[in-house]
Amino acid sequence: MWSSRRSILLQTVSLGVATFAFDRAVAQNYPSRPVKLILASPPGGPQDIAVRLLAERLSLAFGQPFVTENLAGGAGGTIGASVVAKAVPDGYTLLGALPAAFVAAPALYPNLGYDPARDFLPIGSIFRSPQLLTIYPGLPIHSIRDLVDYAKANPGKVNYASAGYGTAPHLLGEMFRQMTGIDIVHVPYKGAVGGITDLLAGRVQMAFQVVPLMAAHVQAGKLRALGVTDDRRSLMLPEVPTTAESGYPDLQAITWFGVLAPAGTSPEIISSLNTTINRILSSNEMIRTLSTFDAIPMPSSPASFAAFIAAERKKWTDIIRRGDIKIE
Questions:
Q1: What tens digit of pLDDT does each residue of 267-286 get?
Q2: Max Cα separation, the chain?
Q3: Whole-prediction pTM value?
Q4: Cys-Cys link to 222, which of 73, 170, 210, 217 (CB 3.0-4.6 A)?
Q5: How many Cβ atoms from other residues are within 10 Å of residue 59's Cβ?
């Protein structure tokens, strides 16, 4: 009986050693052909600019083309995520993803077609950028505290714009509402432009939005910026305080972007990609490119990026459930 157990143990160990040796051999030869990097977003946006530069530098580093492909659609890029989740886990199909597909979508949509925690392995985060709280300047409001006091004195009369149900501006407005107990009304639009247009005209009174879309209006005096939802000030609007500086340290929300692989991808490949990506993120070229849309590099290890995604998913799932936000 002992001989039988010993034989099974030796076979198991041998299999593990063989698998490890195979993974190392695969990683040492990786990549031996072009790598597809799917962006779950339309072309032309900040993430598109950043990832195309990243792909160029990865191509130089590895000696094989890293080819970007935009596969937008679904809520927050869920179509692109679904495609990569089903890809062969050989390191030749990767996903460049915004947070919605991994953070909010699982709580908002019951039939995603993928499990963010089970079907992907995080490789590394690329950048982070803040949201900006702005108001119509005709209001007697000059700080977040003023806004809270005004909303409490005028329940149901402050409307906030978003780019649609479940988007970051919507969920951030909901977080603000839950945190302060104010009665503000969500006005969803089909994209960011309509909400910004109505905010400029005073038809809605406030909005959270990414800094590059609002900076010129703030600088021209057409909108008033109250706070940046990060622990650092904006590169574009350095005079605007952070929400923490304004007395609301928990009113934090960043837009982030990262690269992930299908579950089952070799740890050796994940590690190799992560090391190279972090080196690229430290370059002056990447730092300068990211600064043009108020973003900064967000280097990470695969483990720390996985933990970050899990914490973000819990944070926004709690907001969604407390607000009873549902999208059919």
A1: 999 999 999 999 999 999 99
A2: 85
A3: 0.88
A4: 217
A5: 16
